[in-house]
Specification:
The structure holds two protein chains of two kinds. Chain A is an alpha/beta fold. Chain A is 34% helix and 27% strand. At the A-B interface, helix 2, strand 8 and helix 6 of A face helix 10 and helix 11 of B.
């Protein structure tokens, strides 16, 4: 069903070198609209470098990026954002000292002209923020509540809602669940599901196989700067994914000694 | 997942309490306590007579002018330790251009603004380009500007004080914005009807003892309103908070963080220049040692006003109240006849008290641990 659509973003043989270090040695990936594509890999596999090339933070050393069928080259994160690629970073989603409403519209403040001067339209911003938060299942005390009073999962949800509200077509989530508790993780995964159903392509980065299997449609595993293949939902078991991430052998021995609990 | 149920762990906070918990709360409480204190110990000393009020209002306004600049800059996440040196520098430059080189005063004033804001932009640019703490960069400018000020004053006039500014500024349209008083008619009328005391002897017989509102006070009010509206009611204000709150997050959402910071350094320089010009027009002279320690006084006002030293949080109204507290304490101890060295003790105590109170309030608002 998904294959009837054209991929919204295609990354072809992306290479990224930092001096003598080869962080990415030819990674390919395509993402369909409305799919949740999980990018898995252990620490140092190149996940972060890869999504940073996708979101315009890094320029790839080699390789092509096609967005909606056209070749594209991003010079700044701003270029990727205006093209419709939004990234929600794990720690950098929100500014805790600022209110939810100010955070939600940061960089995209609605304006109201009074006497020839542009003012921040707080009334409109507050209304939209409250409505969007309600849709995501977060009950705010008020739009001026500081983000610092929200839980980690709620902050991720606000950041996701913000990206969706401002017209993201591709949403990149950088380990959104890695620092969260069980219940908060469930909330974020439910949010991902809701976003996907709107037809937005989600790239979900994680090293937790269970979180990936809970929402993912397809799974791509990165290891030491290379793609180890993409598999469809239902075609791969958690154990196989785990093995792929760790590169196979070492984890198999570990798993033996730990009684299969990794 | 519960969709609309109220989280049972969030306490309901009454509207009254919610309206009370704001960044300025510490400064409001402080101001009330300070006024109560001085009404008690110096109530009959003339501190609250028209002349007394005029006296501490003017001093507070001086603090407020530089505090507004320091406040916005601190919220944007940076410091400027060169404010005091900038005050001395701006004064000497305007005096040299107008008195020594004979430029029309309005031209000298505009040139001084351009030069000082240019230096502000330079220190801002150095901070954002090198990524060094603004503390260090502007500390360097503290010395550079003070040294330059003394040097240019001496090589051009062989003095560190340049007088005669009042004579050349007489009748200049721009200079009148920085000196003198306004609403003289109103004050004369208040004197005539007996609300204000009038001189009973001397050359100014019949004139009220307070002749009007000093321009310095008008500048302070205008800058406070401008700063407050800019910070809380505009898009740029949101960018100031964002730049200081977390520069990286702000950049990722498309906020031009570097531009915001450089503009705030320029605004701080603008405020320092306004301060210097008001002082030069009042004294009729410029001195190379003016403005010493003003940067710290500005920062103290801002911190008493509830701003967070590391940026991202604060209030211009708070900073203005901080300036009022500072001015009232300084002049109040003078009126009450207390030992002047006690001023510093008092100031240190207030600073400590305000910062502790502000920290608690801020934690309540932002949920910091």
């Amino acid at each position: 069903m998904l294959n009837e659509h054209a991929p919204i973003i295609q990354m072809k043989n992306i290479e990224k070198h930092f001096g003598a270090v080869i962080a990415l040695a030819g990674v390919s990936l395509e993402v369909m609209p409305g799919e949740c594509h999980c990018l898995l890999g252990d620490n140092g596999a190149g996940k972060s470098t890869f999504i940073k090339t996708m979101s315009g933070v890094h320029k790839p050393t080699k390789g092509e990026i096609h967005f909606e069928g056209k070749p594209l080259s991003f010079n700044r994160p701003r270029d990727a954002i205006s093209a419709g690629i939004a990234t929600v970073y794990q720690d950098l989603a929100m500014i805790p000292l600022m209110s939810v409403s100010r955070n939600f519209f940061m960089g995209n403040e609605p304006l109201k002209r009074v006497g020839g001067i542009n003012f921040f339209d707080h009334k409109l911003a507050n209304e939209i923020t409250m409505a969007e938060m309600k849709k995501m299942g977060i009950n705010l005390r008020g739009p001026d509540q500081a983000v610092g009073t929200l839980s980690g999962g709620e902050r991720q949800t606000v950041a996701i809602a913000r990206a969706v509200h401002f017209g993201a077509k591709v949403l990149i989530l950088d380990e959104p669940t890695s620092a969260l508790g069980v219940r908060q993780t469930a909330n974020v995964l439910a949010t991902v599901d809701r976003v996907r159903k709107k037809g937005i392509a989600v790239v979900f980065i994680t090293h937790n196989v269970r979180h990936a299997l809970a929402v993912g449609d397809r799974f791509t595993v990165l290891n030491r700067g290379l793609t180890l293949g993409t598999s469809q939902r239902g075609m791969i078991t958690p154990e196989e994914l785990q093995d792929l991430m760790a590169g196979g052998q070492e984890l198999a021995t570990l798993e033996g000694s730990l009684g299969g609990t990794v | 997942m519960s969709d609309t149920a109220v989280d049972e762990r969030t306490k309901q906070i009454s509207k009254f309490r919610q309206s009370l918990i704001r960044p300025e709360l510490g400064a409001i409480v402080g101001a009330v306590l300070i006024f109560a204190f001085f009404l008690m110990i110096a109530g009959d000393s003339g501190m609250f007579s028209p002349e007394g009020i005029n006296n501490w209002t003017t001093v507070s306004a001086q603090f407020a002018i530089i505090a507004v600049g320091a406040c916005l800059l601190m919220i944007a996440g940076e410091f400027d330790l060169s404010v005091g040196s900038m005050i001395g520098f701006a004064g000497i430059v305007v005096a040299l251009l107008s008195v020594h080189l004979g430029w029309p005063v309005w031209m000298a004033i505009i040139a001084t603004f351009v030069l000082c804001m240019g230096i502000g932009a330079l220190s801002g640019w150095l901070v954002v380009k090198t990524g060094l703490p603004s503390f260090i960069v502007t500390l360097a400018f503290l010395y550079i500007l003070r040294g330059l000020t003394i040097w240019i004053a001496i090589i051009t006039t062989r003095k560190t004080i340049i007088g005669g500014v009042r004579d050349v500024a007489e009748g200049d349209w721009l200079a009148s914005l920085f000196g003198g008083v306004v609403f003289e008619g109103l004050f004369q009328w208040l004197g005539d009807v007996g609300v204000l005391a009038t001189f009973t002897r001397g050359t100014r017989i019949g004139q009220p003892t307070v002749s009007g509102v000093p321009m310095l006070v008008i500048w302070a009010i205008v800058l406070i309103i401008f700063g407050h509206v800019l910070l809380t009611k505009t898009r740029f204000g949101n960018w100031i908070f964002a730049a200081g709150g977390d520069a990286q997050s702000a950049l990722y959402t498309g906020v031009p963080v570097n531009r915001v910071k450089i503009l705030m350094f320029m605004f701080t320089a603008f405020c320092a220049t306004v301060f210097a010009l008001c002082q030069v027009m009042e004294f009729g002279s410029a001195a190379a040692d003016r403005g010493v320690l003003k940067e710290f006084e500005a920062i103290i006002c801002v911190v008493i006003g509830g701003a967070l030293l590391t940026g991202g949080y604060g209030s211009v109204i708070g900073a203005a109240l901080g300036a009022l507290i500072f001015g009232v304490v300084q002049q109040g101890l003078f009126f009450s006849g207390a030992e002047s060295s006690l001023f510093r003790v008092f100031l240190g105590v207030i600073l400590l008290f305000a910062v502790i109170l502000n920290t608690y309030i801020r934690r309540m608002i932002t949920g910091e641990k």
